[in-house]
Design goal:
alpha+beta; 14 strands
Length: 376
């Protein structure tokens, strides 16, 4: 098989790059397609603030003029400087079950990275931690979420045959919404509220803008996530982009913030109805009727599953039970809104601080994903 690799150099080729994933997984009951317009923005240097400190090229693999794979080659200079590394990332990688294809794609990323002075290749990773990352290695029979990657079981086999080794793993959990707030949450929450003189706040649209809560929440996330694998702090441009992109979609009942006596933000929890099924029905497009499926899931007929998007706690309050306060507030909301299950975002397998917060909710670890590494 003669595999030809071509760099994406036109809008038409970029569309092909984006839609290849949908075509490869068309009809798969577990894969959740990205929205085409969102991906256009992600891959555009004019629209994605991550290009302030990233560079990237995108490649397509062809066989007999048919697309058989894709991959993005990315250098996050900010992350490399933060962690003192010289790594090129591969992301948005998809390929048919043929080792010549996967090898050609990854060899292309390796050459691209070496030309720019990189010493190792890691992935799947996006531009930043706000992008989907990690290759699924467990949980192929589980529905994906809008913020994660789904891939066929043959993907990790290709990685191992090509000499890639485990860099880190993320795990994901599914938890039943309890009928009553666990007694442990109640007890811990009441103690912590008094001991640290904290208060739980529910936000209103008006005060989010007036009191700059969007900025404050992302500043908190930057501080809380700073020690995590590969994290590079969001720039002001990124924060502005995410505030504009996500806050209008959030039902504020599903947001909880914790403040200290002086009004300083010390913790935030953000969740939303799962959009997985709605995105499948939309088939990756807002038009003609994709928007209807998404709005219906968000505001009209919510699914039974919710996504736990972000949980952030200031470092000095971590391991003090503050996480319990968030769910002390949110569990009654979930009950009232009719949710039956919650699903976590990927969490680093060694992040026991985060995983301990689910312990009283009988969590089921149902997915695992991996970042691979290879020296150049």
């Amino acid at each position: 098989m003669a595999i030809i690799i071509k760099k994406v150099s036109s809008k038409k080729e970029l569309k092909t790059f984006i839609r290849f994933n949908y075509e490869l997984y068309k009809g798969n009951p577990y894969s959740v397609p990205d929205l085409y317009d969102d991906m256009l923005g992600t891959f555009s240097p004019k629209k994605n603030a991550a290009f302030e400190f990233c560079e990237a090229d995108y490649f397509l693999a062809y066989n007999d003029n048919k697309v058989v794979g894709r991959v993005a080659a990315i250098i996050n200079h900010r992350a490399n400087e933060t962690w003192n590394k010289k790594e090129v990332r591969f992301g948005w990688i998809d390929f048919i079950d043929d080792e010549e294809v996967s090898k050609a794609l990854l060899d292309t990323v390796a050459r691209w990275g070496k030309e720019r002075g990189m010493e190792a290749m890691v992935g799947p990773l996006g531009f930043t931690d706000m992008d989907a990352e990690g290759m699924l290695i467990e949980g192929y029979d589980q529905l994906g979420t809008m913020s994660t990657i789904y891939n066929y079981p043959y993907y990790p086999r290709h990685m191992e045959k090509l000499g890639f080794e485990k860099e880190t793993d993320w795990v994901e959990f599914k938890m039943k919404v309890p009928d009553v707030i666990p007694e442990k949450f109640v007890r811990i929450s009441e103690i912590i509220l008094q001991k640290y003189k904290l208060k739980i706040r529910k936000l209103k649209r008006k005060e989010i803008k007036e009191k700059n809560y969007g900025q404050r929440i992302f500043d908190l996330i930057n501080e809380a996530y700073a020690p995590l694998y590969g994290y590079s702090k969001m720039t002001q441009g990124q924060i502005n982009q995410y505030i504009k992109m996500y806050l209008p979609l959030i039902d504020l009942r599903m947001v909880s913030v914790i403040e200290d006596e002086a009004g300083n933000l010390i913790a935030a929890g953000i969740s939303m109805p799962s959009l997985s099924v709605a995105l499948q029905k939309a088939k990756g497009k807002m038009l003609p009727f994709g928007w209807y499926h998404l709005l219906k899931a968000l505001f009209i007929k919510r699914p039974k599953i919710l996504d736990l998007l972000l949980v952030g706690v200031k470092p000095e309050y971590q391991s003090k039970g503050v996480n319990a306060l968030l769910f002390y507030d949110l569990i009654p909301v979930y009950q009232q809104m009719g949710f039956e299950y919650g699903e976590s975002n990927p969490e680093l397998e060694d992040n026991k601080k985060v995983q301990s917060q689910w312990s009283v909710l009988n969590p089921e670890q149902h997915k695992r994903r991996r970042a691979y590494k290879k020296m150049l």
